[in-house]
Specification:
homodimer, about 475 residues, alpha+beta, Uridine Diphospho-n-acetylenolpyruvylglucosamine Reductase, domain 2, Uridine Diphospho-n-acetylenolpyruvylglucosamine Reductase, domain 3, Alpha-Beta Plaits, 5-stranded antiparallel sheet, about 40% helix, about 20% strand, FAD-bd_PCMH_sub1 (chains A, B)
Chain lengths: ~475, ~475
């Protein structure tokens, strides 16, 4: 405890009043993940204002063997930014580092500090008639550092890839307090291992991202947002291929929504209604975009593709949003599924992916299997069909009590879903990461060779285990390696 | 030697006659890089036929502590696939593993073994009306394994990225003989560190790539290949921006050729002539492509863009190739620069990159500086302006003798060029990799933090130094770290 006192005094001295706090009221909100599933304790919260301060603070932590939990907007889905209950770690908030350091229109590049909020980045790009091609529900709180560290996905991955695809350069503080600076983007650079790739998606376990250079694209000309009613997920898969063939690069997103989820949203949201008449087993939400200056053809293209799809019998009904307000309304339906499904009652949620071409088969096969094996449950899949990534929720039998069910049958269901997705060659975490919520499952189901490599890399870059302990990398005893 | 004999006997036993040879005549061509700059020795050459054979052979080598030099088409530029002179290593050719395991048209994915030759991959894709969007001069010998291991570039990077961007999944044998299999491509997969990214570009020092799943794109509709005469590299830079703004995704490549290089090619190639009339200080070679089914507009687009450029005064003359034969002729001029410049006399060649926006300034500033500092030399820059990557050759003063000049003044020139490019925040190896040719320079000029991380990762994944020793990763004593 003497040692802790010394550390705390040095931290306060180093970072000043704004930079280090033990004030319970200030820290409290950041000790729990936003979903309220994980709660931890911390010695204090550091909020450095510069990369140099992060580096100095990390060296201080290293000297005192104080583990660090880096945190951005605290809007992660896997508890990756929540400290454990020991109270021996320190929270490291990057939120104060929220400066856009530079934006180069010609090059289409922006250098942001880790604390820049996604929504602010979107606005900064729009002001310059550019856009940052990644978005997700938590854009009002998610930060660049968190997005990079979790290799975030979202609804534009089909066309533009995950966060990894947007990162041109990184700045990160390593476990020994050294600063890796690869911010200057070089389109071609073969000077050895691409170290930024090791850090992207490593959830703060290998280094602390302090800034990133990201690519920006020209603003779009126009978008057409389409809502479709269909008979089956197989038809949605056919429609996806149909759009990929005929719309090519204009296809920006392709999401699927089952009848159950749409009904839940309509119950949940005031004024919400289905964009299409009648009942359909499945719905698809499709977005097409055109380049700036090429606005005329997009509506005609959308109508042509939909007309052909109707002739092929792979959709029942389709509506193209008449204006931006309606387009936003369509997307609001999609974005409200998760909260609407949660409002119904307890459910186990799985963020899974398989090959794009096999996702429809997978859902069609495993949904009835699960409902049969666990009577009274209801399996609901929705989301990013175009990425082979659905959010697969299994709703508890009616009358189940949340916490209790989740820890008994719920747990069994999740293991079963993860077993199945692994058998199908898929991923138990498509976009939400591992954090603390899936570390044991990764240890149980991960490829032993991959797990061994991950442990070796973790050991090499953070030999004293100071960076985000208890996250992502399964311990050897959790693994299936002998 | 007893031990070596035992190893050789076991290797022969394991791989059979086709799989392991000590026949000098067979091995000889593979002991020298194709440019003839490096020559090594080897205990023998293994040519396993399957991933399982590679894995078993690696375990055999590990047991006997025999270092392995993996080799594909032996067309690398940096000696990365040539063994050292000790004769204690074994060559591991992946050329026999040349099967295309699967090709999925709908998904746009092909799984190739490491030994598949790039040209064969192009042809397999074309047969299915798809294309693999990476090409380079050595396509007739370069293999998929080598392309992945060196993160190869080429002339389509501007639009499609380097090899890293094409790799959806990998299979690799690690130093302990375990097999990492990430071949099944998942568009979204956040199960921890992206291990394939660590292997891409690691030049066989961390693992041996045995297969890769690569992305394929739809075939193009049409291409327009344009040759332009200009007054300056700054005008070429302006023209690049002009094309990027107006042609967007249709812009596939943008190469620059100085008058000196064009003259060298015309001297070197029978029947070659300049596509444009008159004398111009610089030339640009530009390729536009259209999607299949959208062929009509491309010619009009090219003419419109060139017309506006002429009005802006950023070009003197331009010719659009009238047909495919002429288009090929234009590209032949570009691809003949390296051999034509070599035919003139000794030169130091530098494969360098800086930010795309600074490349013209860089060349304009350093070329006269070098010619002044080393009287009689001539600096020539050509290549991928659109990627911020030029091949920067410094020709010896006339009368210099190749080998002698290269080892005295030539060496001094290269150090100086590398110093300058490092000062400008650029890369001393844009696309050719480090291999053995630039390892010392990387140790001298590399960021100490990056070098330390590279050494840690190398140590973690290949603790006994069995994989491609002496390549890429600078030894600690070569580094600038204390």
């Amino acid at each position: 405890m003497d040692n802790a006192d010394l550390f705390l005094a040095e931290a306060a001295d180093l970072l000043g009043e704004r930079g280090f706090t033990r004030d319970r009221e200030i820290i409290e909100p950041w000790l729990t993940d936003w979903r309220g599933r994980f709660k931890g304790e911390a010695l204090g919260m550091a909020s450095p204002a510069s990369t140099e301060e992060v580096a100095t603070f990390v060296r201080l932590c290293a000297r005192h063997s104080v583990p660090i939990v880096p945190q951005g907007g605290n809007s992660g889905m896997s508890g990756g930014a929540t400290p454990d209950a020991s109270g021996t770690t320190v929270l490291l908030s990057l939120r104060r580092m929220n400066r856009i350091r530079s934006l180069d229109n010609d090059a289409g590049e922006v250098t942001c500090e880790a604390g820049v909020i996604l929504q602010d980045l979107h606005e900064a790009a729009e002001e310059r008639r550019l856009r940052f091609p990644l978005t997700l529900g938590g854009k009002g709180s998610a930060t660049v550092g968190g997005l990079v560290s979790t290799n975030a996905g979202g609804t534009q991955v089909l066309r533009h890839g995950t966060m990894r695809n947007q990162v041109l350069g990184l700045e990160a503080v390593m476990a020994d307090g050294s600063v890796l600076d690869t911010l200057t983007p070089l389109k071609k650079d073969n000077r050895g291992f691409d170290l930024k790739q090791v850090l992207i998606g490593s959830e703060g376990t290998l280094g602390i991202v302090t800034a990133a250079t990201l690519r920006l694209l020209p603003e779009i000309g126009e978008r057409k947002v389409i809502w479709v009613g269909q008979n089956s997920l197989q038809d949605a898969r056919r429609l996806l291929l149909h759009f990929q063939n005929l719309a090519g690069d204009s296809l920006e997103g392709f999401e699927v929504i089952p009848a159950h989820s749409l009904a839940a949203v309509i119950d949940h949201l005031p004024y919400a209604r289905s964009p299409v008449e009648g009942k359909h087993a499945w719905h698809a939400l499709i977005e097409l975009t055109s380049k700036a200056g090429e606005t005329e053809a997009l509506g005609a293209l959308a109508e042509e593709i939909l007309g052909k799809a109707l002739d092929l019998g792979i959709l029942n009904d389709a509506v193209i949003a008449a204006n931006e307000t309606q387009a936003e309304d369509f997307w609001l339906l999609r974005e409200s599924i998760a909260p609407a499904e949660r409002a119904i009652g307890p459910a186990m949620q799985h963020d899974i992916s398989v090959s794009v071409s096999r996702m429809a088969d997978f859902v069609d096969e495993i949904s009835p299997t699960i409902e049969k094996r666990f009577p009274g449950t209801k399996a609901v899949a929705f989301g990013h069909l175009g990425d082979g990534n659905v959010h697969f929720h299994v709703l508890a039998p009616s009358g189940s009590t949340g916490g209790e069910w989740e820890h008994t049958q719920g747990k069994e269901i999740s293991s079963y879903v993860h077993d199945l997705v692994t058998e199908w060659g898929g991923s138990i975490s498509a976009e939400h990461g591992i954090g603390q919520i899936k570390r044991t499952e990764l240890g149980r189901l991960g490829d032993p060779v991959a797990l061994a490599l991950m442990r070796s890399i973790k050991q090499a870059l953070d030999p004293n285990g100071l960076l985000n302990p208890g996250k992502l990398v399964p311990l050897a005893q959790e693994g299936s390696t002998p």
